[in-house]
């Protein structure tokens, strides 16, 4: 089970409550202190356990963080949120590996958000 306590969302500078482009928030449509237990398939548990062993959480207890410091050098404790453009690059790289050229040129899952409209999460 994953015990979810909230989310970190990317917001534009003019749209958030503070000066940062990321905000920690509670779970959507739930009280601020609410939690949610989500069942997880054993293969994902193995992947997450491996990830945690290989890359311990950042100083802010975030599970997926950058490990790069000034000049792109490796800093194991950097622990900054992953920049938004990183997700897009990883998504494009994954599409290139698994889709045919014709599928890559189609709108098929062009962005991760497109999966929402295809009901993939269901």
TrEMBL record:
The keyword Transferase does not apply. The keyword Repressor does not apply. One of its GO terms (molecular function) is DNA binding. Gene3D superfamilies: Intergrase catalytic core. This is Phage integrase family protein. Keywords: DNA recombination. Residues 1-38 are annotated as: Disordered. It comes from Micromonospora halophytica. InterPro entries: DNA_brk_join_enz, Integrase-like_cat_sf. One of its GO terms (biological process) is DNA integration.
